[in-house]
Amino acid sequence: MMKVVGTLFIEGDKLLLDKPRKRPTLQMVGGKVEEGESVIDAAIREAHEELGPEAIIDENKFELVMDFIETATSDPNLKIHFHLFHYTGKLEGKLSTSEEIESFTWYDTSLKDEVLSHVLNNKVIPYCLEKKLIK
User: Fold this and answer.
1) Are 28 and 8 spatial neighbours (Cβ–Cβ below 8 Å)?
2) Alpha carbon distances (Å) from 53 to 46, 83, 96, 127
3) Is 20 helix (H, G, I), strand (E, B) or coil?
4) Which of 41, 36, 55, 52 is nearest to 5 (CA)?
5) What kind and span of H or E run contains 51?
6) Coil, strand, or helix at residue 112?
7) How far, in Å, CA of 99 to CA of 122, rounded?
8) Are 84 and 58 in contact (CB under 8 A)?
9) Which of 35, 69, 93, 111 has the fewest CB atoms within 10 Å, measured from its CB?
């Protein structure tokens, strides 16, 4: 089973999501845990990679809030072990798109037409609403 990480970056009752160039869905900042890498190290690495070199991240502000098994959005036959982190600080600096990331969206439930990954629809958005992190 593949290990995957995602991080909640919350600002003003909204959740930061990104749109990969190769996928139709919005997803969390995160990705696959590499061989020999811890889940916290993967979350930090993915945040640096996806947010760009001008985003300022305090690596001590990542807090594991839950983990669960889910079906991968990219492959309905693939189960993933997803580790959800919450970034407890304020994201500073400037976000940069890249070859991998097309755009960023500050999501709340008023954005009903956005196409979200399975993990967001099934676990993350309900968690954020229950904890009153987003509206």
Assistant:
1) yes
2) 12, 24, 7, 29
3) strand
4) 41
5) helix 39-51
6) coil
7) 28
8) no
9) 35
Residue-wise pLDDT for 67-92, tens only, equals 999 988 878 899 999 999 999 999 99
**Cβ atoms < 10 Å from Cβ of 84:** 24
pLDDT at 114 over 80: no
| Residue 53 and residue 97 in contact, taking contact as beta carbons nearer than 8 Å | no
Is the pLDDT reported for residue 113 higher than 80? no
**Whole-Å CA distances, 20 to 23, 26, 60, 90, 94:** 6, 7, 26, 23, 18
- Contact present, 66 and 41 (Cβ < 8 Å): no
CB atoms within 10 A of CB 54: 10
- Identify which of 42, 10, 15 has the alpha carbon closest to the alpha carbon of residue 26: 15
Q: Which residues contact 32 (CB under 8 A, 6 or more apart)?
A: 2, 3, 4, 42
Which residue(s) pair with 103 in the sheet? 19
Give the global pTM: 0.93
